[in-house]
Design brief:
By secondary structure, the protein is α/β, with parallel strands linked by helices. It has 2 domains: about 30-125 and about 255-320, Bordetella uptake gene, domain 1 (D-Maltodextrin-Binding Protein, domain 2, 3-Layer(aba) Sandwich); about 125-240, D-Maltodextrin-Binding Protein, domain 2. About 45% of the residues lie in helices and about 20% in strands. The strands form 3 sheets. It has a 6-stranded mixed β-sheet with strand order 2-1-3-10-4-11, with helices on both faces. A 3-stranded antiparallel β-sheet has the order 8-5-9, with helices on both faces. Strand 1, helix 2 and strand 2 form a beta-alpha-beta unit. The longest helix has 28 residues, at about 1-30. The chain is globular. About 40% of the residues are buried.
Length: about 325
């Protein structure tokens, strides 16, 4: 009798193991959704499609980009949080994943509680620029003039309140202890044109927007926001090199996340695939052509990076009292 029980128990265990294995295999064959919080055709969508193609090769599973636009990426994040924590849905988040909940309390996303970083893919440098006819060619020259009160209500333009471009301007104000008037536009399309025409004193632009005007000599770059100098502007100092900025950096960035609670083995599989994909020479080349720098970090390094960026941004939210409805 005991022998029969042991036999039946072993048989049941084998059946359960076979069923679980079959379920796992079936799951591994299903496409993976990469949810992006912005419309098709934009820069975030471009990055997602370049990276997803490489991820598909390495995972042996199709990674399909799903555009869920709205609320500065928050609708996409909520879609991921509503999905099971089984690796079937990835979220391409970035700077807005931190910024939007900080400046708009109606969004309750908490990256530390709700999300598991898989790895950083890219950074997008921002440029603090002035018109070609500006008397300033470096950031310290401008700061010295502002401290002497030589410029009156010197202003800087950005695509809007609560954008990282505004935060970069506020970082310069805070660390240099100078005054600059923020001029928020409704998006960035007109800013470069107005900067060239000297309707505004300065502006914070993403590198891809600034480069055509920099190449034509119509504007000048005084600083870049990344943690390294950008290849396209080797003589322009990154902000962390300037006196009083202590190695600081504030790039736009993009990262892959999973829902918190996803098993560590699944996170590790995606982390290895993403790191390999972002390190591919042709991937780096495609991204660089669009003004985006491949900047891969692993899961733990990404967590450390986000925590440091969050602390820097939170300090500026408090000091500059930035809010967004």
């Amino acid at each position: 009798m005991n022998t029969n029980r042991r036999f039946l128990s072993k048989l049941a265990a084998l059946v359960v193991a076979a069923l679980l294995h079959g379920t796992a295999c079936a799951q591994a064959d299903k496409p993976v959704s990469l949810v992006v919080g912005y419309s098709a055709g934009g820069s975030a969508d471009f990055v997602a499609r370049v990276v997803s193609a490489e991820l598909s090769k390495r995972l042996g599973r199709q990674v399909i980009v799903e555009n869920v636009a709205g609320a500065s990426g928050m609708l996409a994040a909520q879609k991921v949080l509503a999905a099971p924590a089984d690796g079937s849905v990835l979220y391409m988040g970035g700077t807005d994943t931190l910024l939007v909940p900080m400046v708009n309390p109606k969004f309750k996303l908490d990256w530390e509680r709700d999300l598991q970083p898989v790895g950083r893919m890219t950074t997008v440098p921002m440029v603090f620029a002035v018109p070609a006819k500006s008397p300033y060619s470096t950031l310290p020259e401008l700061i010295r003039s502002l401290r002497k009160g030589e410029q009156g209500n010197f202003n800087y333009a950005t695509p809007g309140i609560g954008t990282l471009q505004q935060f970069y301007g506020e970082l310069i104000k805070k660390q240099a202890k100078v005054s600059m008037l923020h001029v928020p536009y409704r998006g960035g399309a007109q800013i470069a044109t107005d900067l060239v025409g000297q309707q505004i004193d300065s502006a914070v632009l993403v590198l891809s927007t600034a480069m055509p005007f920099l190449k034509d000599g119509k504007i000048k770059a005084l600083s870049v926001s990344d943690s390294v100098r950008v290849p396209q502007l080797p003589d322009v100092k990154r902000i962390g090199e300037e006196e009083g900025f202590g190695g600081m950096a504030m790039p736009l960035w993009q990262m892959i996340f999973l829902k918190a609670g996803t098993p560590a083995s699944i996170v590790s599989t995606y982390e290895k695939a993403l790191f390999a994909a972002a390190g591919q020479a042709d991937v780096r080349s495609k991204l660089l052509e669009s003004g985006v720098s491949a900047a891969p970090l692993g899961a733990q390094e990404s967590r450390t990076f986000i925590a440091a960026q969050a602390a820097l941004l939170r300090d500026i939210v408090t000091s500059a009292k930035i809010t967004q409805d």
